[in-house]
Write a structure and sequence with these properties.
Length: about 220
């Protein structure tokens, strides 16, 4: 790594008071342990994470770390719960699903699935309620049907921030995300406008962020 980049990154870590790590159950424990070692090195002490406050969030009922061709034992071994850090962490359980508080039926369905309480057939498959399914005929029509289900009255409400931020479509692959984005944007009313960004670090008297815009732009990847 370039010395200037390493310098501002280290200083940024030193100045940071809180680190948030979402979906921690999906991360391999070695990644988390390496961050622990990095912060110890940056802060110059042997405290966990260099004495910094680190908040991990996630649900172990969801996806565990992906280990190619691994056994169940190997997958569990890669999990955070097998890290030397796990027993030193304070655990807090959230009891209210704020995101789904207006849809109690869906929230309860998710909990039953996560807890292994939802009935299954002889092959272990769960039956998804019909109202949660968008039928598939062909890719183009099905994508538009999905968009209409999630974004009804799009033409009339496309300029409403609350409307747009209150719903989302998730996909497993970036190529599917790109296709959904392109289709959704094509349905927006009005003329397309392009706004070019200008990246600059301000109030950086010590040049901690020198070269950051070039670094960020060089690492840019498609969101998922």
């Amino acid at each position: 790594m370039h010395y200037v980049q390493a310098k501002w990154r280290a200083e940024l870590l030193r100045q940071s008071k809180l680190f948030l790590w979402d979906e921690a159950p999906m991360a391999k424990r070695w990644a988390i342990e390496n961050v622990d070692k990095l912060l110890k090195d940056v802060m110059g002490n042997d405290q966990d994470f260099g004495g910094k406050v680190v908040v991990f969030g996630g649900d172990f009922r969801q996806v565990l770390p992906v280990v190619p061709k691994a056994t169940i034992h190997q997958t569990i071994s890669a999990s955070l719960v097998r890290s030397y850090l796990w027993t030193r962490m304070k655990k807090f359980s959230l009891t209210i699903n704020m995101r789904a508080k207006n849809d109690a039926e869906f929230s309860e369905f998710l909990l039953r699935v996560g807890n292994g309480e939802e009935p299954t057939d002889n092959e272990g498959n769960i039956r998804i309620p019909e109202e949660m399914i968008v039928t598939y005929d062909n890719e183009e029509d099905s994508i538009k049907r999905l968009i209409r289900a999630i974004f009804p009255s799009l033409n009339a409400r496309a300029h409403s921030a609350d409307y747009m931020t209150g719903r989302a479509i998730l996909a497993a692959k970036n190529e599917h995300v790109d296709r959904l984005n392109e289709t959704l944007i094509s349905l927006f009313p009005g003329e397309e406008k392009i706004f070019n960004s200008f990246d600059e670090a301000i109030d950086d008297t010590n040049n901690y962020y020198e070269g950051i815009s070039e670094l960020i732009n060089s690492k840019w990847v498609t969101s998922s």
